[in-house]
Amino acid sequence: MVMQPAQVNTPSSVGPKQPGWQFWIDRGGTFTDIVAQRPDRTIVVHKLLSENPERYPDAAIQGIRDLLGLAADAPIPTEQITAVKMGTTVATNALLERKGDRTLLLITKGFRDALRIGYQNRPDIFARHIVLPEMLYERVLEVEERYTAEGEELTPVQIDPPLVQALKAAYEDGIRACAIVFLHGYRYPDHEKQVAALVREIGFTQVSVSHQVSPLMKLVSRGDTTVVDAYLSPILRRYVEQVATALGKNQTQGESAALRLMFMQSNGGLIDADRFQGKDSILSGPAGGIVGAVKTSVMAGFDQIIGFDMGGTSTDVSHYNGEYERTFETEVAGVRLRAPMMAIHTVAAGGGSILTFDGARYRVGPESAGADPGPACYRRGGPLTVTDCNVMVGKLQAAFFPAVFGPEGNLPLDGDMVRQQFAELALEIAQKTGQRSTPEQVAAGFLAIAIDKMANAIKKISVQRGYDVTGYTLCCFGGAGGQHACLIAEALGMARIFLHPYAGVLSAYGIGLADVRSLKEQAVELPLTPETLTSLDQRFQALAREGQADMQEQGFEPAQISLLFKAHLRYAGTDSAIVVDYATPRATVNRAGLLRQRFEQAYQQRYGFTMPDRDLMVEALSLEVVGASSDQTEPAPISDRTMPLEPIALVQIYTKGQWHDTPVYHRTDLRPGDRIAGAALILEATGTNVIEPGWLAQVTERNDLILSRDENQVSVFPSENHQTSPQTAGVEAAPDPVLLEIFNNLVRAIAEEMGITLQNTSYSVNIKERLDFSCAIFDQQGQLVANAPHIPVHLGSMSENVVSLIRAKAGQLQPGDVYVSNNPYNGGTHLPDITVITPVFLADSATPEFYLAARGHHADIGGITPGSMPPHSTTIDQEGILLDNLLIVEQGQFQEDRLLQILARGSYPARNSRQNLADLQAQIAANERGVQEIHRMVSHYGLKTVQAYMKHVQDNAEESVRRVIDVLKDGEFRYVMDDDSEIDVKITIDHRNRSACIDFTGTSSQQKTNLNAPLAICKAVVLYVFRTLVEDDIPLNAGCLKPLQIIVPEGCLLNPRYPAAVVAGNVETSQAIANALYGALGMMAASQGTMNNFTFGNQQQQYYETICGGSGAGPGFHGTDAVQTHMTNSRLTDPEVLEWRFPILVREFAIRSGSGGQGKYHGGNGVIRRIQFRQEMTAAILSGHRVIPPFGLAGGQPAALGQNWILRRNGQIESLGSKAEVAMQPGDIFVIETPGGGGFGSATEKNP
């Protein structure tokens, strides 16, 4: 079968032949927007509060009544209404506030805590008190059943009396929603079907089954999605019934009545109300905004747009390049969702974002003033916000803003209060920094930071993915968007902005324009070959039959239905799928080749390279079924203006460093052909549009407003809003507080872009899925400036690598060179952590001005065991291949042959050098992305400014640490490890200089084991611990170390001499150092104190993971269960992915109850992990706290010890120590029980 490109049909209408009213409704958190189309197809707009219980029970129904002119008790004449199309935040709000229905989770035995543990990473790596999202399910039951990844039924589903009794007990307790998630159920659904039938028989009214909700691989995200569906669908159903009842629509008849009630889904398509599901409702409103932006932009002639929707608390940005972009895996409110959604990136910067000054930097958000109290100008005692900035600089004029404030709701915005507060803030800034700024300059500075944040959000969805947005149009909508659109466009180099007449209610308008859509998915996991295409065609035919039947049931004729066939393709061994068109012309001979060509074009654009020798896998198929809605022809504007356009007022606005006389116009006074040069204000009923100097506004024949750059004016970057010029700023001694914040965000954003590139382009599971990597930027001296929040043990130690390169190769570094190093005695940590370093040269520089580094944990680098984490190594050469400042790219040429020779040499060569090469190339690509961004930054700001502000960023971090040190007390701690080695640390505080001495004198000498930790690790841990004491958003960098004197005697455990083995020092001793430092500071009890390094493999396959445990309690907080702590934050591979790729079975992964230490504040619990082997393999464990328990503090109790043991297939149990390497036979089970965290405070103390 050859798939044909889908034809988009546009029927005259959907529904009855006689036109009636249509209501398109976006029910938001604060306001409900209604766009109504009258029977004569003219449009009317209405806006009302979403919650106003004194006046009406439901805003959507009240809005319909208002527009139809009905009394409160009059029935709604449904015969006059063709359709009601709604987007709603009802389910989203229930998710955010955790107010969904009580839900029961049924899951495969051994996985009761799988969704709680998730992928084990913590959301904030510098938080001592780790806060994880609250679970949605109230109760969980394990079901005995099991399939393998290949479909072998190991255990038939056990529907036994205990299960039935437990289900009935849950039902009798009032639980009515049930989520069913079984391992590999997406592919082998029989067990899920059997249990679902039982659950429905008992009486549960909402049963969500994972193979129907999200038929894709990954237990955790599919499980979360299924739970969300069960949790939210009843809420939605009740709301749908409420609306349907109010409209007099009897859904039980399934009638072809005039009125159609439809809801907007997260995927951008409408669906009949009775088919609306919880999992598809999360982005219901924002998806309408994207549809509105796309449909109106395309009608206006723009097919490449950036959607910019700025509201009160946040800003949503989106990207469109000819087709809707969707994500199939995302996280919302702490819940992992595996369902198709519009690709929307949200940043916490909106009109209500709160402004603060921390003594050195201007800060915008993330906290919002909300609607109550709202901004300072709202007359409710609120704080200064972004909205107040616009009042201060004149871009929001109180005289033209609705007078709805004050006790009686009849006063204008309070401009006097805004000016007073900015004057006070300007005085405070002058006192603390010595820099005098006017109130309007302060406001402009805060606006520059807000612009910067929003521009960075747009870069994440465009530039980072290989799109050049300079030729795009910025489609601006939302209440606050028009005030900032010109400055956002300038920040991104965009020259055109599109503002639709209904920009203020574009989400509602988009819902009206949307088609009915249904997305069908099916997991495949087959190689892309000519032979597999027949199977794929058959699968698509089955999906198409199902999709067309769905649409026909919703009232569409076959001619109104179009089909879009998509294949999710990825390189074998990687995890980043790219969606490509599956349909091919009839005459195509090599269909597989054409699909590969499409994939590689998209891959090249996104990542900058392809892998032509790598096989392609078809991960999944998706079919989009579209029921086309009627075309909306927008009525031509009718203007009765006969005179030339005149402003209604002349005001002053402050922008780009000066005040401007600015005319004010009403949008309703404009007519086609009008041209307005900036500076100008154009007022609308739903917002204000600011035309900045250098921009020209034109009204088109369609009444759209198009803003374009005046080519005669010099381009201006948002930071130039402030009084400091970028090319000269920062060279002075005192930093400009605005640029300091912009650079703080900018350098971290570059490191994050590098990290995204590395994750996307890497080969190994370690880097791509477990995210065991870090990226960072360094100054000319090799000192850390900024990093992305990756793996803590990497972040503080990479600078030692860079400094060692500078020392070793001074005068030899050339443009286009890239070096690699993993030498623990020259700045490295342990051999699997390989660092790629790129010197950054500028056009006229003879020496590097900056350095970039990307470090990744490679799956194998040789050594005596697969995975290169040998438990019993005694010298460094037993741990793998040592690379010491090796040149791997010479003047732009990758030295592949030289590298392969080195990886193959010695007694213990690398087992999979091709995989090493692939990951190294990804690290090189990550650095190259950073080089491009550094060049862009220097081009804009000038080298002197960039270098000055890199130092200012470090100085700011230094001052933050000094402030913390000032409140610390002296302390010391002796930490005993399982092998009787000791870490002795004494911390002495010098309050006069606000500095600290951290002295490790007394620590054990270096050992004959591999627990020795290179000096770089010790410095990294000290840096991390003191950074966690700063409860503020600062980058971790070299400045944090400046107030700290670290004394580590040479030849001790923490500063060993060559050739000591060090592989465990990085993963185990680092955790011990962190615990010892917290003990000396008295800040928190011990966390699990180990990474529980587990490796298995053979000559063909190797796998490595670190396993979470409990975190320690501290003053005022309990420890957290089952989470990565301190020096690691690597993810865990999803159990379905792990079983698909390796011949093992995950038999159990659960929280180990009772393993946390008791106390006034109890420690977190560890976990139990049981892995059964299906082939002969070597397995190794490298762990700690199997002999000495993690300590409690201030009277708190220690945590339980960890345990390692093997259950042989004959039932024999073999206990293992902290370190072990064993031969595993088919049927053997390796069991790891990780330690908990220590308790804090005596359990007899009263807990508040």
Structure description:
This protein is α+β, with helices and mostly antiparallel strands. 28% of the residues lie in helices and 24% in strands. The chain has 25 helices and 54 strands. An eight-stranded mixed β-sheet has the order 19-14-13-22-23-34-33-30, sandwiched between helices. It has a seven-stranded antiparallel β-sheet with strand order 36-35-39-38-37-40-41, sandwiched between helices. Strands 3-2-1-4-11-12 form a six-stranded mixed β-sheet, with helices on both faces. α11 (439-461) packs across α12 (481-492), α16 (737-761) packs across α22 and α21 (913-941) packs across α22. It is globular, with a radius of gyration of 31 Å. Mean pLDDT is 88; it is low at 1-17, 251-256 and 714-730.
SSE map:
Blueprint lengths: L20 E7 L3 E7 L5 E7 L9 H10 L12 E8 L1 H7 L6 E6 L5 H4 L21 E5 L2 E2 L5 E3 L5 H12 L4 E5 L8 H13 L3 E4 H4 L5 H28 L13 E5 L5 E3 L11 H16 L4 E7 L4 E7 L4 E2 L2 E3 L2 E3 L3 E2 L2 E3 L5 E5 L4 E7 L17 H7 L22 H19 L5 H23 L11 E5 L3 H12 L3 E4 L6 H8 L2 E12 L5 H21 L7 E11 L6 E4 L9 H17 L8 E12 L21 E7 L2 E9 L8 E3 L2 E5 L2 E5 L3 E5 L5 E5 L27 H25 L3 H4 L4 E6 L5 E4 L4 H4 L2 H11 L9 E4 L11 E8 L9 E8 L28 E5 L2 E2 L1 H8 L9 H29 L1 H23 L5 E6 L5 E9 L4 E5 L15 H14 L15 E4 L15 H19 L11 E5 L4 E5 L28 H7 L2 E9 L13 E8 L3 E6 L20 E5 L5 E4 L2 E6 L4 E5 L15
Parallel strand pairs: 1-4, 4-11, 5-6, 5-9, 9-10, 13-22, 22-23, 29-31, 44-45
Antiparallel strand pairs: 1-2, 2-3, 7-8, 11-12, 13-14, 14-19, 15-18, 16-17, 20-21, 23-34, 24-27, 25-26, 25-27, 28-29, 30-33, 31-32, 33-34, 35-36, 35-39, 37-38, 37-40, 38-39, 40-41, 42-43, 43-44, 46-47, 46-50, 48-49, 49-54, 50-53, 51-52, 51-54
Helix pairs in contact: 2-7, 8-13, 9-10, 9-11, 10-11, 11-12, 11-16, 16-21, 16-22, 21-22, 23-24
